[in-house]
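Entry:
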Amino acid sequence: MPESSTLPTSLTEWLAYIEALHPKSIAMGLERVNEVKNRLNLYPDFPIIIVAGTNGKGSTCAMLERIYHEAGYCVASYSSPHLLRYNERVRVACQDASDEQLVRAFSAVELARKDIQLTYFEYGTLAAMWLFIQSRVDLAILEVGLGGRLDAVNAFEPSCAIVTSIDIDHIEFLGNSRESIGIEKAGVFRQGIAAICGDPNPPHSLIKHANNIGAQLMRIQSEFNVELTGDQWVYASSGKKITGLPVPALVGGFQLSNAACAITAVEELQAVLPVKFEHLVSALNTVRLAGRFQCYGNKPPVILDVAHNPHAAQSLALNLSKMPCSGRTLAVFGMLADKDMVGVIQAVGGEVDSWYVASIENARGAQATQLQAIVHAQFPQSTARTYQNVTSAFYQACLDASENDRIVVLGSFFTVADVMRALPELPSTIAANQ
């Protein structure tokens, strides 16, 4: 640990420092986090909701944050990864943390950790909780970064835990089956508290673990359910029925499952943090989440979606099929090499007419030629051109697109972030609706 007089002073310097602190970007285990947590005395006296899952975590956290904000609570939210600025990860009262707040939080963690090596995510998790405690929030919503059982956020005791979905991802850390992944995600459950699962067919391992530890398992299509009736829907559980709920502003039929998980958590915490029907309605109508089927402009529209695994790509393909356009679908596409590239391309390829395949400027990024070869192998009739970077691919797609076409940007947070940076520079209707 450097002397206090040589600590970084800006957020940019701090992020570079903590990124280089641990030899591995991911190091599973809670021993390091727990030790520094104890040194910092990070024992929050407010309720915590932990949200895990392969897909749907971000949407569920966004809905919970909005619901409690509408109800008048000072709600904190911690999520990852970010798109444009690290500050997006740490939010208090629906506002991104400032550079100054994050610098103070990182400094506190640094002074406490001494010789303990922390990963980037572990460092950020501890800093976020330190800031939440300092801010005297009413509630914290913590999104799991990877897995659940050994994820840094699981060092904190939840009042309620959610697993949104279980699918194959991060096999090098979580295993290559839904059963092995299910037990990792079920690690966020606790004895005697609500263990909410939004997967309609959860792995047996998740159910068994919840039962073994005495968690109050609540599964969609079992202990709670949803029913769509026109442009509204009904939430139902064994002790509650809520009618007249608006379809969430986040696009996709699967968002009803995420919303039902959020409402189940809200109902479980009603005695501590009461929420009224009108708060649910307002929150579902106004919730937003960057990079999840996010649309810009209309001639042609640009759709941003961070889908980076087959399950998310299937949801994207379903959304596209339900919103047909009279022209072509042009896909600006880049992925990380350690993801299931074949699975993502297979899932969404049936909705794509032309591919603009880009290399991602990241050490883990797949090369455009590698992705192009997979596209041609899976969809031999498709056009797939390669570009050195995402921005070049996106600009060419904009030049080629007619007003009846649509441009879909997908494959990674990095891909979407590069296009988000480029959008304001476009002198066209594409950038008009930002």
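The chain has a mean pLDDT of 92.
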